[in-house]
Automatic annotation (TrEMBL):
Keywords linked to the UniProt accession: Signal
Domain of life: Bacteria
Signal peptide span: 1-20
Keyword Signal: yes
Full protein name: Lipoprotein
Length: 177
């Protein structure tokens, strides 16, 4: 039976971790012009909410449903999502339940660095999410925490918010306390 570590299963929920795949080259954007830090952080939070909504629409048996997640990611996060979804689809896995956006704490704003504009700590409640293999057995480790903290970097992108998730790393931060 094909089992994944907690970090890889959580990748479905938050597309965490790096991948050995090289991301597709993307054009270097000039970056959105936010009038203030508050505006940039609001756009990042809106981006993350849209990303979680897209995750909740994923049907692992239908790769077309992955496209909405890809639209809210770029670089390393996009490559990781593509790899994870492709593997889970190939293994015949199923996801049930929905993730809930559970917290957003702004941490950095870099207006002069278009590939690393906003960084925030986020919390995602995955307590209602289960992932099962082709035989119907859960692949979610019993040790998985119900609330998953991550440090997320948002980069300039051609999206409704002018941002996309470029990296997401699991953390032990207080974002979920």
């Amino acid at each position: 039976m094909f089992r994944r570590s907690a970090a890889v299963v959580v990748a479905l929920a938050v597309t965490l971790g790096a991948t050995a795949c090289q991301p597709e080259p993307t054009p270097t954007p000039t970056g959105p012009a936010f009038a203030s830090e508050d505006e940039a952080f609001a756009a990042a939070e809106e981006t993350y909410r849209a990303y979680v909504d897209a995750l909740n629409q994923v049907d692992l048996s239908d790769p077309e449903t992955f496209e909405a997640v890809y639209a809210w990611t770029t670089g390393e996060a996009n490559a990781g999502a593509r790899k994870s979804f492709s593997e889970m689809h190939a293994e015949g896995w199923t996801v049930s339940g929905v993730s809930a956006f559970d917290g957003f704490t702004p941490s950095a704003f870099s207006p002069s660095t278009p590939t690393s504009i906003v960084t925030a700590e986020v919390c995602l409640d995955v307590s209602n999410v289960d992932v099962t293999d082709a035989s119907g057995q859960s692949v979610v480790p019993e040790s998985r925490k119900d609330r998953q903290p991550a440090i997320v970097t948002f980069a300039a992108a051609d999206s409704a918010t002018s941002l996309a998730i470029s990296t997401s790393e699991a953390t032990e931060s207080a974002a979920c306390s």
